[in-house]
């Protein structure tokens, strides 16, 4: 018994330390810590309300192309988000699958879309890599070509049906990038040519809701 109590205390203590390292990037009240950029309006000029917060949810209309992006940069991290699709879609994607995405290691050059690594959020394609603006990564032992936009299709599919909440995780550490959908690793690469930058959430023609965006620096 004398060994059990100290062990329990140790577990509780270390668990508390772990939880303290996890920080919400979205507080459920406003977009503090983020700024917006819209293709046709520029920085922090979201008069159309493409991005808004209501009832603890981040609501992205998708009506205009653009994004919100963190003011802070991150290097090694574990990001967890929970999202689901809304009903509305807009031109030029009104007749196509719903599309969004999380870009990470975003460089300091606001445009649609900035140099970065994308974890695709798109109906049927959640977890794909998009390597934007000559970014490269090693997949299956070979480095990808440096192109304008390089797509790497996920190895597995574990997306829930539209309208249901999905949990997406991105673990980026020392050049290794792992995409996890609902607890299953669906894509993974190593030796990424980008290893620090901001985190970005797109608006790309589809209504999307987020209820959790939290990050643990590694």
Description:
This protein is mainly beta and 218 residues long. It has a single domain (25-217), classed as Sandwich (Jelly Rolls). 8% of the residues lie in helices and 46% in strands. Strands 1, 4, 5, 7, 14, 15, 16 and 18 form an eight-stranded antiparallel sheet that branches. The chain has an eight-stranded antiparallel sheet with strand order 3-2-6-17-8-9-10-13, with no helix packed on it. Strands 11-12 form a two-stranded antiparallel ribbon. A hairpin with a 3-residue loop joins strand 2 and strand 3 (42-43). It is globular. The two termini are 35 Å apart. The model has no long low-confidence stretch (mean pLDDT 93).
| Range of strand content | over 45%
Straight-line distance between termini: 35 Å
Helix coverage percent: under 10%
Radius of gyration: 18 Å
Question: In this structure, how is the largest beta sheet organized?
Answer: 8 strands, antiparallel
> Could you state the CATH homologous superfamily?
Exo-inulinase, domain 1
Q: Average pLDDT, to the nearest integer?
A: 93
Q: What is the C-level CATH assignment? A: Mainly Beta
Shape: globular
> What is the tally of helical segments?
1
From the helix content, strand content and strand pairing, which structural class follows?
mainly beta
CATH topology: Jelly Rolls
Residue runs with pLDDT of under 50 for 5 or more positions = none
How many domains, in number, for the residues?
Answer: 1
CATH architecture label:
Sandwich
SS elements, strand count? 18
SSE run: HEEEEEEEEEEEEEEEEEE
Pfam families: 3keto-disac_hyd
Protein name: DUF1080 domain-containing protein
GO molecular function: hydrolase activity
Organism: Niastella caeni
